[in-house]
Amino acid sequence: MRRKHIVVVGSVNLDLVGAAQRIPAPGETVMGRDFQVFHGGKGANQAVAVANLGYPVCMVAKVGDDEFGERLRRGLHDGGVNVSNVTTAKQTSSGVALISIDMAGQNSIIVVPGANGKMLSRDVDNAKPTLCSAGMILTQLETPLETVEYLASVANRYHIPLMLDPAPARQLPSTLLRHVTLLTPNETEACVLCGIDGGKLNSSTAAEYAQELRKRGPATVIIKMGGHGAYLAGKDGRSIFLPAFKVRVVDSTAAGDAFNGGLAVALMQGQDPEKAARFASAVAAISVTRMGAQPSMPTARQVSRFLREAAPSPGGSAG
Fold first, then answer.
1. 49: closest CA among 264, 277, 231, 310?
2. CB 104: neighbour CB atoms within 10 A?
3. Is residue 257 among the annotated active site residues?
4. Which of 57, 43, 49 is nearest to 3 (CA)?
5. Options 15, 197, 257, 272, the catalytic residue
6. Which of 40, 121, 242, 284 is most exposed, with minimal Cβ within 10 Å?
7. Tens digit of pLDDT for each residue in 183-217?
8. For residue 279, what are the CA distances in angstroms to 140, 274, 304?
9. What residue ranges define each of the domains in the chain, with the CATH number in brackets?
10. Do 255 and 49 form a contact (C-beta atoms < 8 A)?
């Protein structure tokens, strides 16, 4: 039986990554120790994560008509992603992310949307044949919010599960959240969605926020808590804290995207939410041990070996 594909609707960027001893404070200049260029964008990262795990995936996105555009499309194709719905925005630059990484693997990111900002509702309509045959749709907030809202309404109309990664952090309308099947914020995003100052959670506050967010519509909420783990609040009423896997962090860029890609694949393969979240945590844990966004995504065989050999432990990284 042919598997239903996953569709990722979202951003495609070129990541310009500078590594230094520490991330500079405002107005400060620090000397870097390394510079690399990677293919990125939250949408593209999630699509490549899915493809690396051996699952069929299609990307709906826009790139610019500059020198980066064809490079980004080719990178997706070479990564195993169907790019028939990746179109070109005329007289527009491709999306770019400027990323600073410190010695601990933590990062700060400036994203210039470029062509990602030209993703419109009509692009969703043009991709409807692909979307309506999907088993699941993944999206994020690096394209216009109106487009994400329209995509959610389409997913709801055709009864297609929608996973929303609410990044970058912002308040979201209730009409959008009611159409979301799986909501996967990190700590900062969960706090913003709940209107709370802060950004760091423990298992108790994560449980409170996850249940609050579930009341707004999503059947399942998973709060990604980085090196502490993840908190799952499911539609069956089951809530559980999943500790992170202990790994040596090299670069945390795209760990959350690795998690979402892994989660989608595991769910599409029939795993229950708890097992799927553990699988996703393993995908994210492997990703942070490698440099770059898309180059850090593991294969299904690597994840299986990791799960056999590793044990969850507080203080690791789960994306």
1. 264
2. 11
3. yes
4. 57
5. 257
6. 121
7. 999 999 999 999 988 767 887 889 999 999 999 99
8. 21, 9, 9
9. 42-60+120-309 (3.40.1190.20)
10. no
